[in-house]
Amino acid sequence: TQLLEQSPQFLSIQEGENLTVYCNSSSVFSSLQWYRQEPGEGPVLLVTVVTGGEVKKLKRLTFQFGDARKDSSLHITAAQPGDTGLYLCAGGSIETSGSRLTFGEGTQLTVNP
Amino acid sequence: NAGVTQTPKFQVLKTGQSMTLQCAQDMNHNSMYWYRQDPGMGLRLIYYSASEGTTDKGEVPNGYNVSRLNKREFSLRLESAAPSQTSVYFCASSGIGRGQPQHFGDGTRLSIL
Questions:
Q1: DSSP string computed for chain A
Q2: Which residues of chain B lie closer than 8 angstroms to A103, CB-CB?
Q3: Which one of A69, B40, B64, B66 is separated from A54 by 20 to 30 angstroms, measured CA to CA?
Q4: Contact call for A101 and B107, based on CB within 8 A
Q5: What is the pLDDT of residue A97?
Q6: Side-chain half-sphere of A53: how many Cα atoms within 13 Å?
């Protein structure tokens, strides 16, 4: 069974601060996805990274896939209240051609004005 | 522009009752999934269907059954509900292959008394 450990579980910061969320595993994944979920809704994809060492930027969000494809990080610069939500990382299984995902426990981010 | 539609949105059951959660997608996706989400545990895969006509167990299949009715529809059945099955249930769909994003419905909030 592949496991993804996400940290921290909860994060409460002030507007304008920077933060990093980590996603770690002992298993190798075919891809790594980050989702954001708001109350009462399903998760929505933010980004997919597929190559070891890959870095992707989405406005103030920077995503990195570890060289060995076992870990990933999400860095937010100058956080805003609109960034508040549950952030989930998910690894694609190598055995099932990558379609099946294993999710981390999630990081609940609160950005205070 | 419906995407993934889940019904019902809310349900309260008594222990031992049965019910079926419905899910339909209009994106012509081959793969569909059922997850449950509990506080601090992220999303756990119950069952998935890689393509029409096939279903496979996920991490937590006990107490559940599924039916892939056709390419659009994937239902989840609780034969004899238990309080431990109180959760938020999400259906998702995706294309096949590495890095394919999963598209989620808005969830069914199920309480078992």
A1: ----EEE-SEEEEETT--EEEEEE-SS--SEEEEEEE-TTS--EEEEEE-STT-EEEETTEEEEE-TTSSEEEEEESS--GGG-EEEEEEEEPTTTTT-SEEE---EEEEEE-
A2: 35, 42-44
A3: B40
A4: no
A5: 54
A6: 1
